[in-house]
Amino acid sequence: MSRLADVIASRKAEGSGALIGYLPVGYPDLPTSIEAAVALAENGVDAIELGLPYSDPVMDGVVIQKATQAALAGGFRLHHGFEAVAAITARVDIPVLLMTYWNPVVQYGVDRFADDLVAAGGSGLITPDLIPDEAAEWLATSERTGLDRVFLAAPSSTDTRLRQAVEQSRGFVYAVSTMGITGARSDVDAAARGLVARLRSVGATSACVGLGISTPEQVREVLGYADGAIVGSLLVKALADGGVSGVAKAAALLATGKTQR
To answer: Which of 119, 140, 197, 228 has the most CB atoms less than 10 A away?
Structure first.
């Protein structure tokens, strides 16, 4: 098992589940994004997704798009992602993954990217636009390096696609709870529960739900049937509105959802 899967399994054994937090690297600047990620770890988040800003973020909602565009405008470069991972893992002991579209990895060099991520202390990659049957190079590289690889599953996915995601993911399968882009919603799409059930039916033992979670009550709801709850837009907005202290308070509040089951 991967370290990430071990953390998720441990939280399940404790009777809760994992809280996974997303923040973009370089927003509002690189040092602040590092401090914000550390604040997540210090306030109940069990694993961190660091998003690499990208010029065409087709899956991201308005809040995250605005933040990543600001990071790019502020001079973000890909090597800053590895610098951030190294700085965070030197201070806190939780898994840190990079979430990235696949093109930057290819442009950087798949093997070079993986080796630099390992050297920085990173745990793996979440690749929202890469499907398992087009991921041969990444599958081989992640086997060589031991990095986790997280593929996405959506309510529209066929059973064959879900099975592929389960079989090829390591760490967890990312269950996309809605058909749209990321962003906080008043309630989590009911399709998430059905999607996790379908993932279980094809062998998933570690399925985490993301897109739309913004309250501790929703965290509690998701952890009632999934292994982890992923929160992004709310944390990015908290950082934008209240700085590092704001994101720390938001994370601590969300983490109460793990203990209310």
So the answer is: 228
**Known catalytic residue at 49:** yes
| Contact indicator for 40, 46 with CB cutoff of 8 Å | no
**Three-state secondary-structure class, residue 233:** helix
pLDDT of the residue at 186: 46
The residue annotated as part of the active site, out of 35, 46, 49, 116, is 49
The one-letter amino acid code at 236 reads V
> With the C-alpha atoms ordered 86, 88, 92, 97, is the resulting torsion angle positive or negative?
negative
CA 135 to chain CA centroid, nearest Å: 19
Q: Does domain 3-259 have CATH number 3.20.20.70?
A: yes
Task: Note if 187 is an active site residue.
Answer: no
Along the chain (261 residues), what's the average pLDDT of each consecutive run of 10 residues?
92 94 97 98 98 75 85 93 98 97 96 98 96 97 98 93 97 81 56 94 96 89 95 95 98 90 48
- Using CA of residue 251, residue 253, residue 257, residue 259, what is the dihedral sign? positive
Q: Is the pTM of this model over 0.90?
A: yes
